[in-house]
Amino acid sequence: MAGSDRGGAAERRSGAERRSAVERRARATARAEAERRARQRRSGVDRRGEGPWQAVPIEIALASDFDPEEGLVAAAVDARTRAQARFSRFQVGAALETTEGHIVSGCNIENATYGLTLCAERVALVKALSDGHLAFTRIAVVADTQDPTPPCGPCRQLLWEYCGDIEIILANLAGATGRYRLSALLPLPFDSRLLE
User: Fold this and answer.
1) CB within 8 A of 13, min separation 6: which ones?
2) Which of 32, 34, 52 lies closest to 167 in space, CA to CA?
3) Residue 103 exposure: Cα atoms within 13 Å on the Cβ side
4) Helices in 43-139 by DSSP H: which ranges?
5) For the structural domain made of 43-195, what CATH number should be given?
6) Running DSSP on this structure, what letter comes out for residue 69?
């Protein structure tokens, strides 16, 4: 009986060791992928002038994979607290990251004539442009919703025009809920290529 106990313990250890090795490989793969994405974001490459492209959604990742974005999401959460949303009561915050690592935030500003309402993404973009920032890597958008709240159509168009195919991080007050490339949210953009 003692021999079978030792054999069972050895099997349990080897199973635990296998699971541990698999988990280590998965973490290493996730770290390598996060580093690759960070290098791509920081490259500042403007992908708008490329030929035909295919939309590529970025997967919804585990919370631990969002660690590099914590500061960006936190800035959007903070900006949301200053939203002027007395009509809809739907507060949104956005934080736009420049290629130099600066974060420019914005919140939605509503108007009684709804057509003049400014979305958080546009406020952040206009603030960044007016401060002289011209190249961007990603934007975080935060709302107090269960489901991700993506940018509206006009925001997508303006982000494409001035930011190119940046990463869009969607989050609620608990944290990030998903990531997409702008090309996945705006699959057939109108841009300067059509004016030539």
Assistant:
1) none
2) 34
3) 18
4) 70-80, 120-130
5) 3.40.140.10
6) G
Q: Which of 98, 168, 96 is nearest to 133 (CA)?
A: 98
| Residues listed for the chain | 196
Give the lowest-confidence range in 38-42, 140-144, 180-184.
38-42
Task: Tell me the two tokens of residue 97.
Answer: 């990251």
Supply 74's token pair: 């936190």
The residues, any chain, with a CB within 8 Å of residue 114's CB and separated by 6 or more, are 87
The residue assigned the tokens 């914590």 is 70
For 118, other C-beta atoms within 10 Å of its C-beta total: 17
The pTM of this model reads 0.68
C-alpha atoms less than 13 angstroms from C-alpha of 184 in its C-beta half-sphere:
13
Could you tell me the two tokens for 135?
Answer: 């190249």
Residue-wise pLDDT tens digits, 82-117: 999 999 999 999 999 999 999 999 999 999 999 999
Catalytic positions, written as ranges: 121
> Hey, is 96 helix, strand or coil?
strand
Amino acid identity of 68? P
Distance of CA 153 to the CA centre of its chain: 17
Residue 111, classified by CB atoms within 10 Å of its CB into exposed (0-12), middle (13-18) or buried (19+), is: exposed
